[in-house]
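Subject: design request, 326 residues
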């Protein structure tokens, strides 16, 4: 039994991002969490080009006075198929196209490739690392192909991506992160046999925050809230449009998709309901490529059942969101 003076062990996190606005928010949430130690952040192309992703992560770390956290450059293209991006939503640079003349230089990036870093950290801390993936799963797929023992060395995996009711946000049935690299998502959902939590598009939408809450949150007047207000301005023109609000599951509101996966990794009790089943990804459908498939009748006979989030404790989630901008 630990003595009363002994500090509780912190949860070890690795974060894999395609740093757009909600990835930035998720990173800030993790940095603010007192029970978390971030071992490193790996970058993957997705919301924006890989160089921008790396730059954006460094910008967030500088804002939070945490440039001591190592950042690793990873895959810039999908395993197969054509690259897509979300510049229409996140801006061309991924953070709302807000100029930053004092952005940290890319020379601060680690020389080690992101995939090699994933392999090294999981070997160094077997059974202790929680991996949070908030972008396309290319780095994770490449890593498990290079070292099939990575999943068994992880404590758990938290993914933001996919969908559970065939509702898409990029195509009719495709959520962006999975659609950006369906082959990678297929590999990860098949080969990562560790405990795997998934925050889907529908879960994020149903756990939205009100615009009234957002307006108060973004106008708190702190250095961090001012930063988020600036980078979200571009995407909010889209999010608060009548067309987009109709597309949001359950009606209008502020959705910071990646923050739901991060909140669950920091505090699993933020998840109030789940669906446990085998999952896979459609690769060849004309209209459904990239769609996540929930095997509710156990047709696939998968031994490892994913834990698909289906409910959020909004009070606990709000606390984590608010702590990230103090």
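Subject: RE: design request

Done. Sequence follows.
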């Amino acid at each position: 039994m630990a003595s009363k003076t002994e500090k509780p062990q912190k949860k070890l996190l690795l974060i894999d991002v395609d740093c757009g606005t909600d990835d930035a928010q998720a990173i800030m949430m993790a940095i603010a969490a007192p029970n978390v130690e971030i071992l490193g952040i790996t970058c993957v192309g997705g919301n924006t080009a890989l160089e921008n992703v790396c730059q954006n992560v460094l910008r967030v770390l500088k804002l939070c006075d945490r440039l001591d956290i190592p950042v690793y450059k990873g895959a810039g293209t999908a395993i197969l198929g054509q690259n897509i991006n979300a510049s229409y939503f996140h801006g061309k640079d991924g953070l709302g196209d807000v100029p930053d003349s004092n952005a940290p230089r890319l020379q601060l990036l680690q020389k080690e490739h992101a995939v090699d870093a994933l392999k090294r950290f999981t070997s160094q801390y077997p059974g202790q690392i929680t991996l949070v993936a908030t972008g396309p799963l290319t780095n994770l797929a490449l890593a498990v192909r290079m070292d099939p023992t990575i999943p068994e060395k992880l404590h758990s995996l938290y993914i933001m991506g996919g969908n559970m009711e065939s509702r898409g946000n990029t195509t009719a049935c495709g959520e962006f992160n999975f659609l950006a690299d369906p082959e990678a998502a297929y590999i990860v959902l098949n080969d990562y046999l560790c405990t795997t939590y998934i925050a889907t598009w529908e879960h994020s939408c149903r756990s939205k925050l009100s615009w009234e809450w957002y307006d108060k949150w973004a106008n708190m007047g702190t250095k961090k809230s001012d930063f988020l207000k600036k980078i979200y301005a571009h995407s909010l023109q889209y999010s608060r449009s009548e067309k987009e609000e109709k597309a949001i599951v359950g009606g209008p509101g502020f959705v910071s998709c990646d923050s739901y996966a991060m909140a669950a990794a920091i505090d699993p009790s933020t998840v109030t309901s789940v669906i446990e089943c085998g999952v896979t990804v459609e690769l060849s459908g004309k209209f459904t490529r990239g769609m996540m498939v929930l095997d509710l009748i156990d047709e696939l006979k998968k031994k490892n059942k994913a834990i698909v989030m289906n409910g959020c404790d909004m009070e606990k989630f709000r606390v984590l969101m608010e702590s990230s901008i103090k």
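The radius of gyration is 18 Å.
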